[in-house]
Give the backbone structure.
Amino acid sequence: MQLLLEKNPTENILLVNRTGKLNIPIPQNVQVTSADVTSKTDMAAIARSSDLIFSCTDMPYNKWADFYPATANALAYALSETNTKLVFADNLYSYGNVAGKEMNEQMPHSAKTKKGKIRAGVINTLLYSGEPSNNRVAFVKAADFIGPRIHKGIFGTDFLHSVYHGKTVRIFGNIDLPHTFTYINDFAAAMINVGTANDTFGQIWHAPNAPALSLDKWVHLFEVVTNKKIKKSITPKFIIKIAGLFNSFIKELYEMAYQFEYPYLVNHDKYLKRFGNHITYPSDIVKETVEWYLSIQKNN
């Protein structure tokens, strides 16, 4: 919303969530409404009032099997009933374990994991189903998010809370391997750039990312910016597996362990060639993330 308004302060924007409420001030040309993204009726109604939909959904892992197929079907129906365009915010799970290879948009969506298959199914429904509406859909894929307003991520609010309260930060996997992160503001810019261009639909795009650093180097950057020594503990994989026997979320997390057992690298040359480079670099990402966290702590 913020980036769209920076481009055009008078843009008519409809924000959609489950409650129809938002706890931040918004200008008069921005409205909020409630809808069920798994409902064909609701999504058709949204599509009829929109030229372009940005679908940015998230649910706990254990609800994906029901949520994402229904969401894809509802959006596909909405597109079939209108001329609306769709930009779908996606992750990299559909590629599966590529054993450290650099991921690009030409790779097959051949994941063997449960969640990877679900994500591949969404792509097949919206982009590769052979329907005319496929040409009005674009996918923008991101790696793990980092930046302001990220609560659940590796470097989200739990991480920062631990840093500022002297608690041990628990990290999983090989912390010396390079790992790509996607800065949330760069991702938002990529969604808008892809969505407002005329030659980007019917395709998959990788959002531009900062250079891949190891988790250990990311932690060090946070130490520099916060001026705090971060205590970290590496959680072995077998501990995650055992914990998954008692916790459904951790069980789902264990399935994605491969992301931290090999280098996690993403190629975004296609995007850079089309839109140029607007990448935010790691030191700036960490600085902006910390500034945001401190601002919300101050306001609270």
Summary: The chain has a mean pLDDT of 93. The chain has one domain: 35-299.
